[in-house]
User: Which sequence fits this backbone?
């Protein structure tokens, strides 16, 4: 049995991270092979685990009492079930490919060992998150992936962009995390446990219900909103593109941002009991999917297009979960991980060759970089939802669930699917086709080395085939492997037709606008000016937050700092000053105003001292005389009184 | 146990201090070695104590009792339970590290180390004393060396800071003394034995006033808003090692006194005062973080972060005080979190002050506007600073998280609104630490610091143990929790939460 | 000397002798300015006290030696005091080259 050794899957990358951190510099390649070897072994182990569970093995759980707080036991442990197994394979596979790819992309980087150490650490954290059998460990992994993300976004911290982006990412997600934190607290206090099965059982048993359950579920969801960059906390993800592109592929597309979706799936037992909470998930997902897709249509930075696309697709997954399509959401997570990693790594390959991210400086690269171009196109097809590529099957399932749930959500997600096809076509056309717009850069462009194109090819193959397990062609195997309850959405052929139609329409429009001269873009912009600038400025979210939340906090902090310095401390000094003034009044005191009460006391002594010091002649003999005289006087008094 | 181990722990530093006065001042190295060895011996005794400690027993252990002033019932009475032991461990660790961190003191080193060891005696004494008079003696004993250590070896405004510190804490301890005497006379038992006096039942209305006296006395030390303004000044002016002890150990004396004196002796008043307590704890958390965000001085920022962190202790205590029988389990969580936070904050703030000291020794500035790109200049130091910052902002897997998590978890059912407001402190704390890192560690390096050396082996020796401890106590909290648990459960029961 | 032979002399004589000796010492200690001389005068006063102690013991409780022991203590202390005093004077002379007590007035206000 492989399952009891599942912890090794997470432990190996941790060991690798430590080894690279301490010894990486001693090796010629910065110890990158340690990271790759560790993740390769983890991947193989994950496959074995997956194979066993797919072969019908029972899911595995190991718990121990982490803490005993005076009769309040706190359990901790890991669990491997079908959902975990899928996530393990996805995370380790993408992570392995990204680490191989990075050997080429990050070659010669100033902080190469640090990069690999952090990457391995990220993998560890993500795997710990996935393996957790309880909210507490999940939260620990959750924050640790946030840390790795922070470190990797800020990898090139000499530049202002990554500096601000890394901070923004950490703080924005932490706002969501606070919600998750309170949600976990509420669930623990009502159900008495952190473990997922126990919490779900508690919810099912009605220990928490009604409004409180909805509140708890929404709080947990707010963590997912932060991590998965959902509206209104999505602003950090586009900025996170300041990090190295392989990092964007691994963390900000395939794995970490999907953690929010995973969380909702993992805690589905809680959500399923509250239709309101599910509605919140569905609507937030819908808004995010459409909003991000709209912004993506006007982004000019290739990575930003992909970033908004990621946000949009994560919204899709949320829709899937929110409308009751548990399998669909998780399935889309899986397929999306492969084709979005592919797209990011492809864009990385382009950026590596051209040293620019602006699509307006690209064009005509298909001949120079055939492998990159064609794998990118496969990824695009998968993302756009063209059959039989992976994205089609998963997206179709989400649309199907939405169709059964609510026509408005269905319509909006269909619209988002159209937009997705449109902006991806735009990106492909601008990047790979047409005439080169920057000839100098075009001249120097060349296909990337094999350690970069290799992962692209592998991912391209996956982008084609990864959808099959969830398709009717394989008898919807994925749905049997991962499901919540026995519910299976009834297939509606019309939905599939509409999905394909919207995708094709999107591609067509995209091609007409950007591939031909049929549409005068300048005129189109002029006509739609207000909408255009609204979208161009990313719906002014950054500006809104800058003026409200960030500005407000900074103002509050400045006020607090001023109050502390001038009022609270001023009061203290004023008390001291008052004491000093009182001293002055009585005439004996002569104080400097600020010194306060201690000087007041000192002044009494010194005032007295000033009068008394005349006695201090410094002549030893006068002291002795005084002494003797005192004795004589004392004796005389004694005699006179007649003691 | 015939060995008077607590006496040894407390008075070995004093013996070292006396020994130092006999050494000629020119023998700088010998003086430092004596100081280090004295702290090491005490720490070794603490470690031995740890191995001999009987876990699972709520009462006092290793008690030493001798008559001192029989006519008043004053005794030389020492003993520890799990709460004291955790703080003894912290003190043992931090005094050794502080001695190492003082190695570059050259100005009047003889006096410095003599006072330093005297300070150690006082700190150890506070945590083991079980007699009010003895406790008060040690409490005040800490004050005097601290005054001189800040006033002589401090920064430019050292005299102002030292006097401020002194007057503040002295005023606080006078109130505390009044409270202690009031308890003594009210009980009519003719003893100053804390455990005996805690068994006595006092009139509720009377308790209310005495609690207020004790509260102000302890709150100054913690410090609780609005009695906190001595802290930033004292921290900024104090030499590095003294800042470490100030933040790591001295602040804990205030909270420890709540655990040892105020709560068990005056449980009824504690319940009455709990809401105000909680509000002040909340203000500490949020206001401390906001003020920290406004600071330009690195050390001042860390000092304000201490105010923020001590707020969690106060909030946890308040929750346990207010809990009542209905929330016994929550009270246990909250108070465990509070006690854990004392330890965790000692580690993380000690580490941060050491780190600030390291960079100040080199660049001679703590102004964040004048520091940038230090990750490039001092990579090892910067890594530790980042670690310390994340430990302090409560990253899961590190010790601070456990504490904050249990405080908020336990306090939630009792003070829902306060806890929700307090969680905003989590975001603010992250914000000011990340802003600090953005300004200090990231960015272009400055040429004027280019040739300066990274952390040296001595400095690493002070940092590595803290790093390891922060990780260990973040991953395996049961080590500490099992130690403190019986005493805390007893305390919760005493507070009426059973 | 036996107790009988001593008792021939009345106690008052011995006390007067002691008082004279003490007055001599006091005169020297208060009016002389040479530090060494002052020290010697102090010794004189101590010895006057010793005589009184021994005399009282001998006349009032002849069976005991309390007074003698007391005076031995005084002699010991006086020796220590002389050593310390001389050391101080020596140090002053070394540093400032004066023995005149009137000029040593740094402790003046």
Assistant:
């Amino acid at each position: 049995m492989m399952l009891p050794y599942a912890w090794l899957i997470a432990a190996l990358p941790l060991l690798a991270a430590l080894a690279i951190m301490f010894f990486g510099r001693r090796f010629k390649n910065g110890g990158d092979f340690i990271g790759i070897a560790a993740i390769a072994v983890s991947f193989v182990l994950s496959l074995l685990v997956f194979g066993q569970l797919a072969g019908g093995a029972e899911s595995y759980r190991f718990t121990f009492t982490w803490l005993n707080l005076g009769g309040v036991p706190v359990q901790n442990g890991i669990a491997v079930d079908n959902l975990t197994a899928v996530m393990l394979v996805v995370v380790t596979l993408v992570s392995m490919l990204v680490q191989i790819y990075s050997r080429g992309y990050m070659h010669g980087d100033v902080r190469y060992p640090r990069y690999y150490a952090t990457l391995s650490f990220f993998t560890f954290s993500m795997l710990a998150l996935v393996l957790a059998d309880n909210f507490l460990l999940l939260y620990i992994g959750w924050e640790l992936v946030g840390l790795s993300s922070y470190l990797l976004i800020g990898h090139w911290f000499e530049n202002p962009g990554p500096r601000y982006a890394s901070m923004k990412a950490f703080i924005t997600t932490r706002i969501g995390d606070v919600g998750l934190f309170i949600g976990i607290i509420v669930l623990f206090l009502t159900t008495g446990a952190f473990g997922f099965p126990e919490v779900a059982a508690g919810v099912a048993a009605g220990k928490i219900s009604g409004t409180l359950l909805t509140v708890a579920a929404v709080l947990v969801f707010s963590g997912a909103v932060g991590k998965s960059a959902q509206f209104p906390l999505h602003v950090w993800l586009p900025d996170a593109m300041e990090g190295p592109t392989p990092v964007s592929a691994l963390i900000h597309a395939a794995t970490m941002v999907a953690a929010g979706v995973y969380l909702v799936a993992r805690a589905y037992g809680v959500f399923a009991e509250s239709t309101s909470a599910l509605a919140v998930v569905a609507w937030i997902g819908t808004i995010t999917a459409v909003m991000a897709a709209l912004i993506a249509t006007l982004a000019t930075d290739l990575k930003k297009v992909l970033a908004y696309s990621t946000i949009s697709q994560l919204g899709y997954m949320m829709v899937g979960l929110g409308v009751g399509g548990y399998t669909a959401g998780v399935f889309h997570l899986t397929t999306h991980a492969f084709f979005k990693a592919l797209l990011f790594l492809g864009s990385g390959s382009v950026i590596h060759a051209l040293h620019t991210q602006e699509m307006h400086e690209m064009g005509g690269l298909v001949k120079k970089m055939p492998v990159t171009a064609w794998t990118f196109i496969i990824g695009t097809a998968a993302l756009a939802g063209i059959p039989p590529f992976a994205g089609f099957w998963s997206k179709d399932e989400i649309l199907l669930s939405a169709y059964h749930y609510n026509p408005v959500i269905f319509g909006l997600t269909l619209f988002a699917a159209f937009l997705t096809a449109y902006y991806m076509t735009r990106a492909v056309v601008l990047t790979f086709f047409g005439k080169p717009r920057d000839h100098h850069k075009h001249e120097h462009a060349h296909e990337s080395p094999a350690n970069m194109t290799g992962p692209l090819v592998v991912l391209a193959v996956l982008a084609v085939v990864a959808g099959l397990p969830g398709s009717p062609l394989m008898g919807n195997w994925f749905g049997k492997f991962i499901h919540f309850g026995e519910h299976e959405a009834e297939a509606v052929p019309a939905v599939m037709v509409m999905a394909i139609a919207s995708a094709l329409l999107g591609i067509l429009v995209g091609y007409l606008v950007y591939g031909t001269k049929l549409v005068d873009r300048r005129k189109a912009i002029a006509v739609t000016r207000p909408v255009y600038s609204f979208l161009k400025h990313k719906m002014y979210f950054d500006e809104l937050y800058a003026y409200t939340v960030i500005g407000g906090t900074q103002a509050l902090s400045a006020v607090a700092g001023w109050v502390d310095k001038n009022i609270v401390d001023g009061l203290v000094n004023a008390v001291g000053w008052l004491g000093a003034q009182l001293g002055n009044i009585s005439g004996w005191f002569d104080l400097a105003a600020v010194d306060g009460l201690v000087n007041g006391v000192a002044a009494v002594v010194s005032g007295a001292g000033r009068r008394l010091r005349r006695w201090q002649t410094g002549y030893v003999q006068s002291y002795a005389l005084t002494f003797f005289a005192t004795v004589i006087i004392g004796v005389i008094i004694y005699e006179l009184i007649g003691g | 146990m015939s060995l008077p181990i607590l006496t040894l722990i407390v008075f070995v530093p004093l013996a070292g201090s006396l020994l130092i006065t006999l050494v000629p001042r020119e023998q700088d190295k010998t003086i430092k070695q004596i100081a280090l060895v004295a702290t090491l011996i005490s720490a070794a005794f603490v470690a031995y104590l740890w191995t001999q400690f009987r876990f699972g027993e709520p009462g006092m252990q290793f008690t030493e009792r001798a008559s001192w002033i029989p006519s008043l019932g004053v005794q030389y009475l020492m003993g520890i339970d799990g709460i004291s032991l955790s703080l003894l461990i912290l003190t043992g660790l931090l005094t050794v590290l502080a001695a190492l961190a003082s190695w570059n003191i050259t100005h009047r080193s003889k006096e410095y180390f003599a006072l330093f060891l005297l300070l150690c005696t006082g700190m150890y004494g506070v945590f083991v004393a079980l007699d009010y008079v003895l406790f008060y003696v040690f409490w005040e004993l800490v004050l005097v060396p601290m005054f001189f250590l800040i006033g002589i070896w401090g920064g430019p405004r050292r005299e102002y800071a030292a006097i401020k510190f002194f007057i503040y804490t002295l005023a606080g301890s006078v109130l505390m003394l009044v409270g202690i005497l009031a308890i003594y006379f009210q009980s009519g038992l003719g003893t100053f034995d804390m455990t005996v006096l805690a068994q006595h039942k006092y009139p509720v209305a009377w308790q209310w006033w005495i609690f207020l006296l004790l509260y102000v006395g302890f709150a100054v030390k913690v410090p609780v808003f609005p009695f906190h303004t001595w802290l930033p000044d004292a921290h900024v002016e104090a030499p590095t090692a003294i800042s470490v002890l100030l933040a790591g150990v001295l602040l804990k004396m205030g909270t420890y006194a709540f655990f040892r004196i105020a709560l068990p002796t005056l449980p009824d008043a504690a319940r009455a005062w709990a809401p105000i307590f909680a509000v002040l704890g909340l203000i500490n958390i949020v206001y401390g973080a906001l003020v920290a965000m406004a600071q330009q001085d690195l050390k001042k920022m860390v000092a304000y972060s201490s105010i923020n962190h001590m707020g969690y202790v106060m909030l946890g205590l308040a929750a346990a005080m207010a809990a009542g029988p209905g929330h016994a389990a929550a009270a246990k969580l909250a108070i465990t979190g509070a006690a854990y936070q004392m330890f965790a904050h000692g580690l993380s703030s000690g580490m941060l002050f050491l780190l600030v000291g390291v960079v100040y020794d080199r660049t001679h500035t703590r102004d964040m506007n004048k520091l940038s790109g230090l990750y490039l200049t001092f990579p090892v130091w910067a890594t530790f600073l980042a670690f310390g910052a994340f430990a302090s902002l409560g990253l899961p897997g590190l010790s601070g998280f456990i504490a904050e998590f249990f405080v908020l978890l336990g306090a939630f059912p009792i003070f829902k609104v306060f806890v929700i407001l307090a969680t905003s402190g989590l975001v603010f704390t992250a914000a000011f630490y990340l802003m600090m890192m953005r300004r200090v560690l990231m960015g272009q390096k400055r040429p004027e610091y280019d040739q300066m050396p990274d952390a040296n082996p001595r400095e690493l020796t002070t940092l590595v143990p803290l790093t390891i401890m922060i990780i260990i106590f973040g991953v395996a909290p049961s080590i500490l929790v099992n130690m403190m648990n019986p005493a805390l459960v007893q305390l919760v029961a005493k507070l009426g939460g059973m | 000397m036996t107790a009988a032979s001593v008792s021939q002399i009345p106690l008052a004589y011995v006390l007067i002798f002691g008082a004279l000796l003490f007055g001599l010492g006091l005169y020297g200690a208060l009016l002389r300015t040479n530090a060494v001389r002052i020290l010697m005068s102090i010794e004189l006063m101590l010895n006057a006290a010793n005589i009184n102690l021994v005399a009282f013991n001998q006349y009032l409780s002849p069976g005991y030696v309390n007074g003698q022991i007391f005076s031995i203590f005084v002699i010991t202390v006086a020796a220590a005091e002389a050593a310390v005093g001389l050391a101080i004077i020596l140090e002053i002379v070394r540093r400032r080259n004066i023995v005149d007590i009137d000029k040593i007035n740094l402790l003046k206000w």
Notes: DSSP finds four helices and no strands in chain C. Chain C touches chain A at residues 26, 29-31, 33, 38, 101-102, 104-109 (CB under 8 Å). The mean pLDDT of chain C is 84. Chain C has one domain: 2-96.
